[in-house]
Fold each of these.
Amino acid sequence: MEGLAELLGVTVAQLTQLATLAVVLFVGLILLRVFMKLTATLFRVGCFGIILIVAAVYVLRLLPG
């Protein structure tokens, strides 16, 4: 670890902080992708639900009564 730190021109503590920061950012990226997929799925389901409700109201208005 010390050899890598010397090669990069930083201390071991700074190298540890950089590695920790990289791991935290990577985990954050994975979580963001999961949340974006969930948001896209919910958006599609919501749009389908709205279209279904509008179609049902339209059909009910066509029925006599």
Amino acid sequence: MSNDLKNILSNLNKDVEQEKLLEYLNRQLTPEEQHELEAHLNDDPFMSDAMDGLSEMKGADKISLMVYQLNKDLKQQLDKKKKKKKRAITETPWLYYTAII
């Protein structure tokens, strides 16, 4: 699975970076950047809904930490699944050999 899919906020819109979204929520963008991002929000209803939900969260200053933790947990879960899949594939031939014998 590509790293883009492991990053929670990056999947909202490929034209907008995660850092830009977080800066927008923390009101750290210039008026021009803010206007540009809002134009993207108007074009993408899913992204607009996601940003509305994020902006209504209590402790908006901790969103960066929450996003980091979500991405970390997601990566760990995907890595575990990948290891299980590899292990299952490597164990399978032995099962076939024992069934044949």
Amino acid sequence: MSNRLLAQAVAYGCTHIAFEDLTHIRDSMPSKRKFHQWMHAKLVQYVEYKAAEIGIEVEYVDPRNTSKRCCECGHTSDSNRTERAFFECEKCGTTANADYNAAKNIGLRLVRRELHDSRRTGDSQLALKSGTVKPNRGFVSYSEQEVEVESTDKHHLNRSERASASCK
């Protein structure tokens, strides 16, 4: 997993990799979830080590609301998470895999922080498999040839489909 992550970072010319800063969360978790945190910590450790060898910086961002915030419009609500693995913004209707939405928020948080850092110059952007996100210009899709389509096996009904299904 760490090798794939770093290979993608190199392929897209990334200078940074962002992770949520989960150091203080571990203490308040049940033991079952602590194992998953341990695995996450190991992944981060491998990425840090390998990234340093190839000149990529690993940064940490505040994890607060990354899974509840819409990566498109910024609306934050518990209601945006209709299912564990599914995200649907109640304000703008954006739908996505919940982890993908959170990953965009994590990356955007780092890009925005770097943008506001007076020591930084240049044009910050967030590279994703499907395109790039620039703080002032939004999301720009890659061409059809560049896109590696991500999907889930399970079809998710959007809010209006669920409402009409429950009325029948």
